[in-house]
Write a structure and sequence with these properties.
By secondary structure, the protein is of the alpha/beta class. Helix content is 39%, strand content 21%. It has helices spanning 15-22, 37-46, 65-70, 82-85, 90-109, 125-133, and strands at residues 28-33, 47-55, 74-77, 116-121, 140-144. Strands 1-2-3 form a 3-stranded parallel sheet, with helices on one face. β1 (28-33), α2 and β2 form a beta-alpha-beta unit. α1 (15-22) runs parallel beside α2. The radius of gyration is 18 Å and the shape is globular.
Length: 146
């Protein structure tokens, strides 16, 4: 599936145990957490010793950082908006603009096809945001300016 060696559908199984079973109890080298909360906390156990855990969200306060330290995990936070939030990252902002222009060209050429989950009129932006907050949206929500 999209180049993955192994796919684990986390809502349908214990993804930590599935990752450990798949790797012979070693854990995976890299975890990409896009959900946060309990999923981030549990992801630490799915990572191999000396593994990397990357998250797009802020971890909960109940994360066992000692376990992460004892496993020598590298924890990374990534926020696409960082160049936009900081005045001292002009070069990063320009680079991000170039990436977006390249993506737009790929979309226009039909090579890159974003998965649109649902389209909302702008007046229903609050409903779209509420749907995102459920954590169960696959793909992108689109707001139209009709």
């Amino acid at each position: 599936m999209l180049g993955a060696d192994h796919v684990i559908h986390y809502p349908e199984c214990d993804f930590v145990q599935a990752a450990l079973d798949w790797t012979g109890d070693r854990g995976v080298d890299v975890v990409l957490d896009t959900l946060g909360g309990d999923i981030f906390r549990r992801s630490l156990a799915a990572a191999a010793v000396y593994g990397r855990v990357v998250t797009l969200l802020e971890p909960d306060k109940d994360v066992d950082w000692k376990e992460a330290r004892n496993r020598n995990l590298s924890i990374s936070f990534t926020l696409m908006l960082t160049p936009m939030l900081r005045d001292d990252l002009r070069a990063a902002r320009q680079h991000q603009g170039e990436i977006l222009r390249r993506c737009a060209a790929l979309v226009e050429a039909g090579t890159l096809k974003p998965l649109v989950s649902r389209v909302f009129p702008l007046q229903e932006a609050a409903a779209a945001h509420a749907l995102i907050e459920t954590g169960h949206v696959q793909g992108k929500l689109v707001l139209t300016m009709d």
